[in-house]
Amino acid sequence: MSEENNPKKPDAAIVGYGNPPKHSRFAKGVSGNPKGRPKGALNLATVLWRTLQERVVVNENGVRRTVPKLEAALKQLVNQAASGDLAAIRQLTALAAFTQPEASGSGNESVLADTDLKVISGVVKRIQQFAKPGDDSNDDEEK
Length: 143
Prior knowledge:
The protein is mainly alpha-helical. Among the domains are: 44-104, no CATH class; 108-142. The chain is built from six helices and two strands. It has helices spanning 44-53, 69-82, 86-99, 101-104, 108-131, 137-142, and strands spanning 55-60, 63-68. Strands 1-2 form a two-stranded antiparallel sheet. The chain is flat. The mean pLDDT is 78.
């Protein structure tokens, strides 16, 4: 029996693939990437959402209200579109189509459903090929 494979040897002496020497292993509690992302760092989506949820005071018909910045910005966009600003109208229609696809009448739901069905049928075909090797009779029926 060789010395490297001897199970009676202490752990520090076994060195090889997946078992580096004790002196070169990562120290406990020390990060492998000390200059990496700091704990608590926020991503763009989180910062944007928090900023849009901040409250601001608006004056509507002589009444002061506090509303989220997102609501205030959308009210301004709608008001600009209503006054005839073409850029605001474009942004508002794009935003409305994005938030309510069924109201836009574009028919994206049926396209998604057809695409989903094609993907699912492809997966089923692959599963059937592995289940019954050499039997490709189902391929022509579903097309």
